Amino acid sequence: MLSVAQLNRRVGRLLEEGVPTLWVTGEVSNFVRASSGHWYFTLKDERASVRAVMFRGKTTQLDFVPASGDRIDVRARVTLYEPRGDYQLQVESLRRAGQGNLYEQFLAIRARLQEEGLLDASRKRSLPAFARRIGVITSLGAAALQDVLSALTRRAPHVSIVIYPTAVQGRDAATEIMSALAQAQMRNEVDVLLLVRGGGSMEDLWSFNDEALARLIAASRIPLVSGVGHETDFTIADFVADLRAPTPTAAAELVCRPRQDILNEIAGLTDRLSRHQQRMLEHYSLRLDRLTGRLVSPAQKIRADRVRVVHAIRQLDAGVRTGLTYKRNRVALLNQALEHSAPQVAHARNRVATLLTRLDRAADRIISQQQRRFERTHTQFTAINPRAVLGRGYAIVYDEAGRVQRDPAALQDGQTLKVELEKGTQQVRVIPNRS
């Protein structure tokens, strides 16, 4: 015999073990968002309904909150609520109905682009610090355009805006967006581009997940900011753009500094420049005062120089007179000393004459010896000079490298040789020996 609680527990175990986790699609009704963060709702279709619960730990992972009337797909386990004996779906994840295939395509495109490095932060360009002209790619009727224009007008009225109109939703939207982006690249008239539109479902934003568009964004020469959808919306364009903004308004705020901030910065720099300039003026004013105090008038300078010149002339005259008197006295003393000590030169003159005679004889003897030695050496050199034999009909044979050839067997047929004779040289060629 089982109690009701035991029965429900056994049935609950059978459900959990016998039914695997599965996907169920239906329409939301009776949606309740409890203060605990849990979601309670009923999933129904035209013929049946089932209660569902999604606990707080799972709900925080979603980027949207379903409402009654929404069609959704849920991934859930089948469980039994034992106190009432009702079976229910314990939801682990959910998505908008029909998004399964689109989401899988989204993940596949992102994986391909990431593998190619197009999502790497290292390849993304920095935004210009002071954009003078901003390009906006969006629909002329989009609320996002008005948000961007309002933000730019409020923050930076000095910045020019160029709009590249395009559809942002529909079958041909991706092609039109690529055309607008290509036009912006070709015209090259803006410093930064904004790609914006308002929020919507994945189907509404699917144009911004186009792979060809993503590659064109990655190749853009102009920095591009993506502001598509709301904070919880993500598209492939967000990942390849140089910067992702959570909203179109935020995108506009990211590409331009507020005009007042720039004016405040300019005012601060002007104030710093003024203070620096004032300090420089004070510094050079003090320096000028010091130099002025040291400055002497030309008349005073001439008078002082004239006094110094007169004094120098007097000193020079006195010095010259004193020097002349000293030298006259010294000359007189030297003359007296010379008269008392006249040298005896006759003996020295005879000795010098004797030495000169001896020197002449020695020089003649040495010259004769050297001449005889030179003649002997010249005779020996002439005897051993190899070219002396050339006069007797001999010759010296050289090869192309200037080496003397002594052995005819070492010569080759057709080889060019140089023959040195007594009266000159002559080139010859070796011919085969016909004998």
TrEMBL record:
Swiss-Prot/TrEMBL GO biological process terms: DNA catabolic process
UniProt-recorded Gene Ontology molecular function terms: exodeoxyribonuclease VII activity; nucleic acid binding
Its EC number(s): 3.1.11.6
Keyword Zinc: no
CDD domains xrefs: ExoVII_LU_OBF
GO cellular component, one term: exodeoxyribonuclease VII complex
Catalytic activity line of the entry: Exonucleolytic cleavage in either 5'- to 3'- or 3'- to 5'-direction to yield nucleoside 5'-phosphates
Record keywords, A-Z: Cytoplasm, Exonuclease, Hydrolase, Nuclease
Pfam families in UniProt: Exonuc_VII_L, tRNA_anti_2
Origin superkingdom: Bacteria
Domain Exonuclease VII large subunit C-terminal as annotated: residue spans: 118-428
UniProt record similarity statement: Belongs to the XseA family.
Function: Bidirectionally degrades single-stranded DNA into large acid-insoluble oligonucleotides, which are then degraded further into small acid-soluble oligonucleotides.
Assembly and binders: Heterooligomer composed of large and small subunits.
The protein's name in its UniProt record: Exodeoxyribonuclease 7 large subunit
Classification lineage: Bacteria, Pseudomonadati, Pseudomonadota, Betaproteobacteria, Burkholderiales
Gene that this polypeptide is encoded by: xseA
